[in-house]
Amino acid sequence: MPYLSPVAAQRVEAAVVAALAVVVTVTAGYPWWSLLALFLVFDLSMLGYLHGPRFGAFCYNLAHSYTLPAALGVVAVAEAGFGDQNRWLGVLAIAWVFHIAIDRALGYGLKTAEGFEHTHLGPIGKARRARSTVDTAASGGPGTRDENDHLR
Question: What parts of the sequence cross the membrane (predicted)?
Answer without folding.
Answer: 62-82, 88-106
